[in-house]
Write a structure and sequence with these properties.
The complex is a heterodimer of chains A (247) and B (481).
Chain A lengths: L3 E2 L2 E3 L3 H25 L4 H9 L3 H32 L10 H14 L14 H25 L1 H5 L6 H30 L9 H4 L1 E3 H7 L1 H8 L3 H9 L11
Antiparallel strand pairs in A: 1-2, 2-3
Chain B lengths: L2 H20 L3 H17 L5 E3 L5 E3 L4 H6 L7 H4 L16 H15 L2 H5 L2 H7 L8 H4 L17 H9 L4 E3 L5 E3 L4 H6 L7 H4 L16 H9 L7 H8 L2 H7 L8 H5 L11 H9 L3 H8 L2 H9 L7 H5 L10 H4 L2 H9 L2 H6 L6 H6 L2 H15 L12 H5 L12 H15 L23 H35 L1
Antiparallel strand pairs in B: 1-2, 3-4
The chains are: A mainly alpha (247), B mainly alpha (481).
Chain lengths: 247, 481
């Protein structure tokens, strides 16, 4: 998986790249067609619904996109479980104690208590937070979405109140997901000074060695088969304090 | 041809007769004497003739007015031929009409039918039945003048009323007779009190009285209702969009026109009185009106004279009455009910919750309906609109009931039935998906309430946390530089 060329390291295969792009597209469609129904009183929502040819067609588009989203999530999880269990893929997405330690370390670093950020592995705690947010939120959205799509069969074994409850959860969770994506994800992938103007890793599948040193030093150490301390020391220089070549 | 020429000829004939009468002759000498003899008694007020039915007729003749009349050269006995200086026979009449009809035969001695037929009004009266007015109904024989020529009327209406206060009728082509009598008290009490007859009766004037030719009374009413357009053009055009006009133009002449609801001479503001207004619709829509009167609104109107309640026109409008089963109309229902049920002050008066309309509009069905209306307004509306449940589906249409008390179960049954219409297979718990206009709370729909509350706290918490992280990250980056 990891091969070095021209100072960059391969991070994602074509499958993961396409998966992200498909997710992004489906998510955008779901947000546009869904939130315009939640915020139906706003002019822009009305314009969207109207341009799509009315609320009925908007709902068809939303449900179709929801179905694709469900397929993406389910296939991803199934493939992930299969890969980890049968093919011995490294379970690099699992949350573990070091993620909490990394988060605390970074907090200390931000406040200037310590002089180096956390040394993260293939996925740092921010990425895991987003990933599990999508998985957990995704399953919530799929379940509540299905209840809203097929209220009659669900009401046969659920109390009727579950339908408006599903609606409340679905639309609130959607709003939360949308807000997290446009603040946190877009900041980290676009506006963060470390990646600005764009983190191209998910488009090219490659990441510079330089960024690997800062963001995923433990993974880099494993790839280059050296202790992580060596990577850090080498990059920081013997003085150890101030950072790198970015100025 | 009209009254004018007919009357003119009549006038010429009369004038000629007068000239002849004025020629010096023994008869003429006698004629000038005779009135004085009669006027010795009849020139005094207070003399009466009593009919068999006890009714009294004044027999006073105003000599001064008679001297100005067309008949001034005639001796009394020319018309009152039974009487002479010597003879004053005792006569017997049943009543005033009996006297009038018998005395009017006298006029025909000088004014033959051929002369009378030249005037359309007279011609119509000649062919009229027994009850039609006679000469003296319109023309006072002692002050006789041409109806139009030389007559001094206070108003044009007075001119018309000279004849139309009488029991006149007209025969239409289908043989039906319509009354032409106008009750001035009704007219003066109407909102049109200040209008002249000619303002509505086009073609008629002080000099014109054209002969009209209608096939039936309905034909006449429909044609006459067109007169309203002249002043009430806005209402007229609104009516053109209505179901009533559609039915009328499809050939059903029973569909109402202006005058059917507003009356003709008794025209009044339709809104003036809610009960009268709704009863007017009930004239044709009897069954619906009966249903309405037993509804919560109808009962309040009829039994408590409560005018807060809606009447027919409040929901169906007065003029742009839409087809009640049309999508366009049904989709307006929440808006229509919301006019009152969304009014907080009005609802407070009856202890009703004013949020009912909004709770509907914010829900799935309401959002769909609103969207349909916008599509409709844009005219690019797709034909594939679904049949959306609205207020009336559960609360009733004309039989709207209270939601509390003994009718609660009726409303619930309607809800269940309505759910199943679009959601086949809906079971007993299904209608609970509709929170019955209640805002979610710990008591009503606690699950929905708690989910909303949780997100209300969690979304800002999450967002503020993430933004703080971002700010810290930027700050650390800036410090490191």
């Amino acid at each position: 998986m990891a091969t070095t060329s021209q100072g960059s390291i391969k991070r994602f295969g074509i499958g993961r790249i396409l998966e992200h792009q498909a997710n992004a597209l489906v998510f955008a469609i779901l947000v546009i067609t869904g939130l315009s129904q939640r915020f139906h009183e706003y002019q822009v929502s009305q314009w969207i619904i109207h341009s799509l040819g009315g609320v009925d067609f908007t709902r068809i588009v939303h449900r179709l996109a929801g179905f694709l989203f469900a397929v993406l999530i389910v296939v991803h999880v199934a493939a992930g479980v299969y890969g980890v269990v049968r093919k011995r893929w490294p379970a690099s997405m699992m949350v573990n104690l070091s993620d909490f330690r990394d988060a605390m370390q970074n907090m200390r670093y931000y406040f200037g208590i310590t002089n180096h950020p956390a040394l993260c592995d293939r996925y740092d705690y921010k990425q895991k937070f987003e990933y599990w947010g999508v998985i957990a939120g995704g399953f919530l959205m799929i379940t509540t979405g299905l209840i809203l799509w097929f209220p009659v069969p669900f009401a046969q074994f659920l109390p009727g109140e579950f339908i408006p409850a599903a609606k409340a959860a679905h639309s609130n969770e959607a709003l939360l997901a949308f807000l997290v994506i446009i603040t946190w994800h877009i900041y980290n992938a676009v506006f963060s000074p470390e990646v600005f103007p764009l983190d191209t890793a998910i488009f090219t599948g490659r990441i510079s060695r330089e960024r690997m040193v800062h963001e995923h030093p433990r993974e880099l150490a494993r790839i280059e088969n050296v202790p992580v301390e060596e990577i850090i020391t080498h990059h920081r220089g013997p003085a150890g304090g101030k950072t790198d070549a970015e100025e | 041809m009209g009254v004018r020429r007919g009357a003119y000829r009549w006038f010429v004939a009369l004038a000629a007769a007068c000239l002849l009468a004025a020629a010096p002759s023994p008869a003429a000498e006698k004629a000038t004497d005779a009135p004085e003899g009669c006027l010795g008694c009849h020139g005094q007020k207070g003399l009466f003739f009593t009919f068999q039915n006890g009714e009294k007729l004044g027999v006073f003749v105003d000599a001064a007015k008679f001297q100005e009349s067309q008949h001034r050269t005639l001796p009394c006995t020319a018309c009152h031929s039974e009487f002479s200086e010597q003879d004053h026979p005792q006569r017997v009449f049943k009543n005033r009409e009996h006297y009038a009809s018998s005395s009017s035969t006298v006029c025909r001695r000088c004014h033959p039918d051929e002369q009378l037929r030249k005037s359309p009004v007279h011609a119509a009266l000649l062919s009229g039945g027994k009850r039609s007015p006679v000469c003296t109904s319109c023309h006072n024989p002692h002050t006789i003048a041409s109806v139009t020529k030389g007559a001094k009327f206070v108003s044009e209406n007075e001119l018309c009323m000279r004849c139309h206060k009488q029991a006149l009728t007209a025969t239409l082509r289908n043989g039906a007779r319509i009354p032409l009598t106008v009750d001035t008290r009704i007219l003066d009490g109407s909102v049109h009190a200040k209008l002249a007859c000619f303002d509505c009766h086009f073609g008629f004037s002080s000099s014109q009285h054209p002969k009209r030719n209608f096939s039936s009374p309905r034909d006449f009413s429909i044609a006459q209702a067109e007169a309203c357009r002249r002043c009430h053009f806005d209402k007229y055009t609104k009516n053109l969009e209505s179901i009533h006009y559609e039915i009328l133009s499809s050939g059903n002449l029973n569909a109402p026109v202006c005058t059917d609801c507003h009356g003709s001479h008794a025209v009044m503001q339709a809104r003036a009185d809610k009960l009268t207004s709704s009863k007017r619709c009930g004239k044709c829509h009897q069954e619906i009106f009966a249903t309405y009167t037993s509804s919560v609104h109808g009962t309040a109107l009829l039994q408590e004279s409560n005018t807060d309640v809606p009447i027919c026109a409040d929901c169906h409008t007065a003029h742009t009455i839409l087809e009640a089963h049309s999508r366009n109309y049904l989709e307006k229902v929440p808006e229509i009910c919301g006019k009152c049920h969304g009014d907080a002050t009005l609802m407070k008066k009856y202890g009703l919750y004013p949020g009912v309309v909004n709770s509907y509009l914010q829900d799935f069905h309401g959002v769909t309906l609103k969207s349909y209306q916008r599509q409709q307004a844009d005219a690019s509306a797709g034909p594939s609109r679904k049949d959306i449940a609205t207020c009336v589906d559960c609360h009733g249409v004309h039989d709207i009931t209270k939601t509390s008390g003994p009718t609660t179960n009726l409303v619930k049954a309607r809800l269940m039935k309505r759910c199943q219409k679009c959601h086949p297979g809906a079971t007993e718990s299904y209608p609970d998906a509709w929170l019955s206009h209640y805002e979610p709370s710990l008591k009503n729909a606690p699950l929905v309430f708690l989910i909303n509350l949780m997100y209300k706290l969690f979304i800002p918490f999450m967002l503020i946390g993430l933004i703080l992280q971002i700010l810290l990250h930027i700050w650390r980056y800036a410090v490191n530089r």
